[in-house]
Amino acid sequence: MNTQIFDPVEVDYEYFLDHLDEQDLFYEKSRALPTTIKACLFGTSLPSKVQSLADRFGFTEKQSALLSRLIRKVFVAEVFIGDLIRELKDQLDLPQSKAQEQPSFLLRR
């Protein structure tokens, strides 16, 4: 499995090569983040947390990449954190109970 899919910043590396305007917008939004939030998004521990979560719940590569994208979108305020459970349920095609476990698992570690 490609480990790049677990990194919310790197998951769309190849896509961004052909969509520089979207890449620029992401980096513009990320530069405006508070230092602690930016450190979390760009830090080395987030990809391992995403991978642990994906392994724990048996996500496919596609689901893992979608999870990484969703996390990135929450960090840069493209998705409201209050909608995270619904987004997890809809985008990853998860039952409600599994979707509710995801955010707490990420925050615990």
How is this fold's topology laid out?
Elements: H1 13-18, H2 20-31, H3 35-42, H4 45-57, H5 61-75, H6 84-91, H7 96-108
Helix pairs in contact: 4-5, 4-7, 5-6, 6-7
Q: What is the number of E strands?
A: 0
What class would the helix/strand composition place it in? Answer: mainly alpha
The helicity comes to 55-70%
Q: Spell out the helices and strands N to C.
A: HHHHHHH
Radius of gyration: 13 Å
Percent in strands? under 5%
User: Please, what is the average pLDDT?
Assistant: 88
Largest sheet: none
* Domain unit count: 1
How far apart, in Å, are the first and last alpha carbons?
22 Å
For this structure, the quaternary state is single chain
Instruction: Provide the low-confidence segments as ranges.
Output: none
Give the number of helices.
Answer: 7
Overall geometry comes to globular
